Amino acid sequence: MTDTKLAHELLSDMVRVRRMEEKCAELYSAAKIRGFLHLYVGEEAVAAGSLRALADDDAVVATYREHAHALLRGIPMTSIMAEMFGKQEGCSRGRGGSMHLFDVAKRFYGGNAIVAGGLPLAVGIALADAMLERKRVTACYFGDGAVAEGAFHESLNIAALWNLPVLFCCENNLYAMGTALERAQSQTDLTVKAASYRVPTMAVDGMDVEACHTAAQRGVHHVRDTGGPFFIEFRTYRFRAHSMFDPELYRDKREVERWRERDPIQSFTDQCLRDGTLSETDVREIEDSAAAEIEAAVAFAEAGTWEDVADLERDVLTPASIDMSEPTREPAR
Fold it and tell me: Is the pTM of this model over 0.85?
């Protein structure tokens, strides 16, 4: 790694995500965060590497394991943490929680709790951009479990058929909840499935942040400049259970430990220190900055307010004063 600025950004992004997720686990145990909680620990290289390849006006659609994507897309950690606390200062007014982070201003469209639910949404956003002749990319993140869903096949088929600007980002962590990939898929090379729809594909080591960044740059270039969809299989691994409710009885602890030896943060830190791209002082400053950001985010969430009961029906029905016969503008967050 020779680009000091990029190295600093990539490591900072991964550390911010890791420390935030670790704090979320702690807060969940303290009953500050409730409901479902799906952590991204181990997969940080994918979000950190790929999201830096996108432009500000590109769109991002994610799954319920989306804290990293939301944070690195630019949603403030204060807003994310308040949302997970259920406070109305959160990015979804406290109504979505961990699985439904959302921010129109950042073109971040979920946080989608249904497996493969984000795929057709991404295709729809890309279709709108294509019809309006915008040079935008929609990056759609989903897990290997989504590949078994009909929405995956329908979405790739339509995107290829209509030449839509979608970057399909498959975060293959080898387990769809508790089902191992080889028990669910007869073809475990997921690029083969995408290629069957004549979508250009590539597979990349999802534990290598540089490789993820390079792959995403290639994919974005194809979508934006060559035209049509592109599929990347990020081969990664989550270090923690599927969710905080998961007893994790389906995989061997030795397997987890073997993958932990490839920790993307530690590997990249060691590499940057070896080649002199970053110093020990740089690494310390990154950790200190992340710690301060998390402290401020938790304080913000703690000080947040609950939504008034009188607002319970807000945004449930369209106000009668709006003329639905006229096209509406995109709502402000």
Answer: yes
pLDDT digit string, tens, across residues 114-152: 999 999 999 999 999 999 999 999 999 999 999 999 999
121-208-109 Cα angle (round to 5) = 15
Residue pointed to by tokens 């270090």: 239
Percent of the chain surpassing pLDDT 90: 90
| Helix boundaries (H) for 95-245 | 118-131, 150-161, 181-184, 190-195, 209-221
- Taking the CA of residue 121 as centre, how many other CA atoms within 13 Å lie in the half-sphere pointing to its CB? 21
Task: Collect all residues with Cβ–Cβ distance below 8 Å to 331 and sequence separation of at least 6.
Answer: 104
CA distance 218 to 215: 5
| In the block, residue with structure tokens 């319920």 | 64
For the chain, what is the mean pLDDT? 94
Helix, strand, coil fractions of the chain, as percent rounded to 5: 50, 10, 40
Provide the residue count of the chain: 333
Query: Which residue segments constitute the domains of the chain, with CATH numbers given?
Result: 4-311 (3.40.50.970)
Rounded Cα gap, residues 78 and 98, in angstroms: 13
- Class of residue 252 by CB neighbours under 10 A (exposed 0-12, middle 13-18, buried 19+): exposed
**Contact assessment for residue 213 and residue 50, using Cβ atoms and an 8 Å cutoff:** yes
Per DSSP bridges, beta strands 179-180 and 175-176 are antiparallel
Q: Is the separation of the CB atoms in 68 and 22 below 8 Å?
A: no
On the 0-12 / 13-18 / 19+ scale of CB atoms within 10 A, 289 is middle
Which parts of the chain are beta strand (E)? 59-61, 138-143, 166-172, 175-176, 179-180, 201-205, 230-235
Residue 105 has φ and ψ, to the nearest 5°, of: -60, -30
Cα 160 to Cα 149: distance, rounded to the nearest angstrom: 18
Query: pLDDT tens for residues 25-76?
Result: 999 999 999 999 999 999 999 999 999 999 999 999 999 999 999 999 999 9
Name the residue among 18, 124, 113 with its Cα closest to residue 62: 113
